[in-house]
Write a structure and sequence with these properties.
By secondary structure, the protein is mainly β. The protein has one domain: Neuraminidase (6 Propeller). The strands form six sheets. It has a four-stranded antiparallel beta sheet, with no helix packed on it. The longest helix is centred in the N-terminal third of the chain and has 8 residues. It starts with a helix and ends in a 10-residue tail after the last strand.
């Protein structure tokens, strides 16, 4: 689409160096996104360091905001609604050579949910549709994409061009009767790609599904339970609203706990919370929804859902260890 191509042309400018937040301290990154990308949900970073944030806006045209490493807003990429009257963008993933993938929740009614791609030339295309609530996206070393459907309780696997779509995993534990009413959400392969990890937001759990030798899905199991973690440590709020997830190179799992307003760090065995980060003052997290590593810099979206989007923003922090590669 011409508007998207024109916006992407702005990304040809050189990036300048920027001072990263000090280790362990959350800081706001970039300007308020209330106007260009209200309710920022998904986040991605490309190889040049541009940061992309998607708007869960329920609008005829929703935007993807693009920021450089300085936090300067350099482009907004418009995404018009499809078969539904609105677009509401959730998860994102940048795959070098393919471009930026983004899910459109639309109106939350099957089959209106879409998987979209904005390629390097700026073309916006529909890769797949038919979802109820498409949410997060992961990719394996073969290039297959995996999309969680938070209402259907499934993980769909498909090729980058949308062909070969199949319900790779379907299990009642990928749905929820809890709150928020989103089941399967954040997705992440472990560094060895032996398991696909899945956050269940409404159940406050992180699940995992073994990847079999033939690429199929094995039997789902609970990796970490917020209730069990709290019971063991005498705490509260563990994995409360588990949303976006990502591994660091040591196998620690970083989890957006959107109901606790924290990013929490799970041990490689899933049996302990190693750290809980909330931010402070005006830099406090507000319904953190998604996160992505760029080396030792961690970027997060603040969906600001409970307060009407007034705190729509991105946050960043420097982490002790780099993030594990998403694309192998």
């Amino acid at each position: 689409m011409r508007a998207v191509a024109a916006a992407l042309a702005a990304l040809a400018v050189p990036l300048s160096a920027a001072a990263a937040p000090r280790a362990g301290a959350l800081a706001d990154f970039g300007p308020s996104l209330v106007d260009p990308c209200p309710f920022p949900e998904g986040i991605a970073v490309d190889p040049r360091g541009f940061v992309y944030a998607s708007s869960f806006a329920f609008a005829q045209t929703a935007n993807v905001c693009v920021l450089d490493r300085d936090g300067t807003l350099v482009a907004t990429l418009p995404v018009p609604a499809g078969a539904a009257p609105v677009a509401a963008l959730l998860g994102m993933l940048y795959v070098p050579g393919d471009g930026l993938y983004v899910t459109d929740f639309a109106d939350g009614v099957a089959p209106h949910g879409r998987l979209l791609r904005i390629d390097r030339a700026g073309t916006l295309e529909e890769v797949a549709s038919g979802f109820a609530a498409p949410n997060a996206i992961a990719v394996d070393h073969r290039g297959n994409l995996y999309v969680s459907d938070s209402f259907a309780g499934t993980i769909t696997r498909l090729r980058p061009d949308g062909t070969g779509a199949t319900a790779w995993a379907a299990d009642p534990r990928l749905a929820t009767a809890g709150a928020p009413p989103f089941g399967a959400n954040g997705l992440a392969f472990d560094p060895a790609e032996r398991w696909l990890y899945v956050a269940n937001t409404g159940d406050d759990t992180v699940l995992r599904i073994p990847v079999l030798a033939d690429g199929g899905a094995g039997e789902l199991e609970v990796f970490a339970s917020g209730a069990a973690l709290d019971a063991a440590a005498g705490t509260a709020g563990a994995l409360d609203g588990a949303d976006g997830i990502a591994f660091d190179v040591a196998g620690n799992l970083w989890v957006c706990a959107n109901q606790a307003d924290e990013v929490q760090v799970l041990s490689p065995g899933g049996d302990a919370l190693l750290a809980r980060h909330r931010g402070a003052g005006s830099a406090a997290l507000d319904f953190p929804a998604s996160l992505v590593f760029d080396g030792r810099t961690l970027y997060l979206t603040n969906l600001s859902l409970a307060d009407g989007g007034v705190n729509s923003k991105l946050s960043a922090m420097t982490t002790p260890l780099p993030g594990a590669p998403i694309v192998r």
